[in-house]
Structure formats: C-alpha cells, structure tokens
Amino acid sequence: MNRLKEYYKKALQNHFALGAFNFNNMESLQGIVNGCKKTNAPAIIAVSEGALSYIGDDFIIELAKGAKASFTHLFLHLDHGKSFEICKKAIDLGFDSVMIDGSSLKFGENIALTKMVCDYAHKFDVQVEGELGQLKGIEDNVYASDHHFTDPLQAKIFVERTGVDSLAVAIGTSHGAYKYQGEQTLRFDILQEIENLLPSFPLVLHGASTVDKELVDKFNSYGGKLEHAVGVPKDLLIEAIKNHNIVKINTDTDLRLAMTMQVRKVLSENPKEFDLRKYLGKGREEIERVVMDKNQNLLFSANKID
Ligand SMILES: [Zn+2]
Q1: What pLDDT, in 10s, does the model give residues 37-93?
Q2: Ligand 1 centroid distance, CA of 187 (Å)
Q3: What is the pTM of this model?
Q4: What is d(CA 43, CA 106) in angstroms, rounded to the nearest whole number?
Q5: What is the pLDDT of residues 257-291, one digit of tens each?
Q6: How many CB atoms lie within 10 A of CB 122?
Q7: Which residues lie below 8 Å from residue 17, measured CB to CB, with a gap of 6+?
Q8: Any idea what DSSP says for residue 222?
Q9: If you ran DSSP here, which 8-state letter would residue 150 be given?
Q10: What CA–CA distance (Å, rounded) separates 170 from 166?
Q11: How close is the Cα of 172 to the center of ligand 1, in Å?
C-alpha cells in the first residue's frame, strides 16, 4: 500500500494531520525537511503547477530525492493540478500523490476528470486528492471572490463515483494572506454532515495558514506592507484535526511570509550584504522554525513516524 495512504489512516485514528508544505526553491524545501526531521513528523512536500514550471521537472525530482534521502517520511505531491495532462506528467515523474482540482467545473465534469486521474494514478499506486466546493482568495493568479461551500450530499456521490483517496473541502478557509474580513469562523456543521455521509474518509483543508500577527508585525517592521493580513485561527484548525477527519493541512502563505520576513530583516539591517547564503540561509532557518511549531503545536504530527 502507498505509505501516504497508511499515514492518512493513522492520522484518522490518532487525530493528527500531516502538514502539506509548499516549496518554491531549494532553501524553502530544506527548511521544511529540517523542521520535519527535527520533530520526527511525516509530511507532504507540495509543488503547485506554478512552482513546477518555476523550478523545472528535473530539478523538482532531484530536490525531492535529496529531501527524502535526508528524511524518508516525506511525500511529493502536486498541488492544484488543473488537467489530466499535468497530473499524468507528475505521476510519470514519480510523484507520490497528485491533486486534481476540478472544483471550478460543473459537478459532472469534475467527477469525470477526477475519475480519469484516479484510474491512471491507481495503476501506479499514486494517491489522488480531489476538490469539491470553492475557496475564496488568490491561488496561482486565479482569484475567487466568494466561498462556495462543499455540498455534503455531492461529496458522498463524488467520492463514490471517482474512487478518490482524499477530498479537499470548502468550509470557510481561503487562499492568500487576507482570509477574513468579518468573523473568523469555519463551518463545522458542514464538515460534520460530510463526515456523517463519509465516515472515516480523509479530508483536507486548503488555505489554512494562520498568518501569525507576530510574524506579520516583524515583516512590516522591516519595510513590508501587509496591512490587515489575517489567517485561520489556530484553535479552529485544532478543532478540525482533533474532533473531525481533517488529515492534511495545506500551508504556503505562512512559509512565504517566514522566509521573506528574514530576507527583509537581513537586507535592511545589513545594507552592504550581498551574499545569498546570508539572507536565504536565515529564511531557511525561519521556515524550519515555523514547520517545527506547526508539527508540534497545531498538527500534532510530531513523533508520529512509523
Ligand atoms: Zn489550495
């Protein structure tokens, strides 16, 4: 069995979640790897289509190889694949898991596309995540102005017809650094309905960065300008992990903020600095710190390796 599938099962039974950490260069990946290694936490290393084209196929594969050689409980995942072709490419390259995001399509089309990816992926024992409902916010340059919450009945039909291994649900999280304008809530009632219809099925939350105020304040104090940035409150995420079936939590924004904050700090405090290792190295350390904190205090994935 795919080891990631086994970890999802374990996460369901023991109420923890795997961090799905997006990386965009070598240092961000190394920060994630070091953070997971130091906390003995299984995790998903994720690349978006944008990151794949930014880094390049060959480099992604070799970077992931290096990451896994350093810590074997890491799984390479394609985040938000929008077509069969991109998912097939990732599967052929040796990814452990792919997401097919047909959430902007009509229900029937989303089912057909997701099933096609599942049928192909499962021949190679690759895990597939689908998505139903739409998150607010910006993601790889596509902006959605409103939430479309997941319909629980549709979720059941979707899982049955596609054979998908996990499902990303829309219950009020959103992509980007500006997650809420009003009250910071999640629709646990919808989540519970989904779980009633799909007991013990692995569910996923996207757009789940916490955008900690301390980090944003530091970012701004070194010349940044992120006003009113707000993330998902930590206690809501813990509730989703501890009392529900969320087994994968996606984090991109928090890692970008962490690295960029340190780059800003080093460059603003040392205007003469031009050694890449000095500022990217600090960025890498900050990502490691954030990943360790999440594994220990939010996801409870620390010390959960088999
Ligand atoms: Zn996402």
Answers
A1: 999 999 999 999 999 999 999 999 999 999 999 999 999 999 999 999 999 999 999
A2: 18
A3: 0.95
A4: 32
A5: 999 999 999 999 999 999 999 999 999 999 999 99
A6: 15
A7: 11, 241, 246, 247, 248, 249, 299, 300, 301
A8: T
A9: P
A10: 13
A11: 13
Crossing angle for the helix pair 57-70 and 26-39, nearest 10 degrees? 20
What amino acid is encoded at 53 in this protein?
Answer: S
Name which CATH class applies to 3-297.
alpha beta
Cα 206 to middle of ligand 1, angstroms: 4
The rounded Å distance from CA 250 to ligand 1 centre is: 7
Closest CA to 207 of 240, 235, 172: 172
What would the DSSP string read from start to end of 126-141? -EEEEEESB-EEEETT
Q: What are phi and psi of 66, to 5 degrees?
A: -60, -40
Helix, strand, coil tally for the chain in percent (to 5): 50, 20, 30
Annotated catalytic residue 306: no
The one catalytic residue among 79, 96, 101, 254: 79
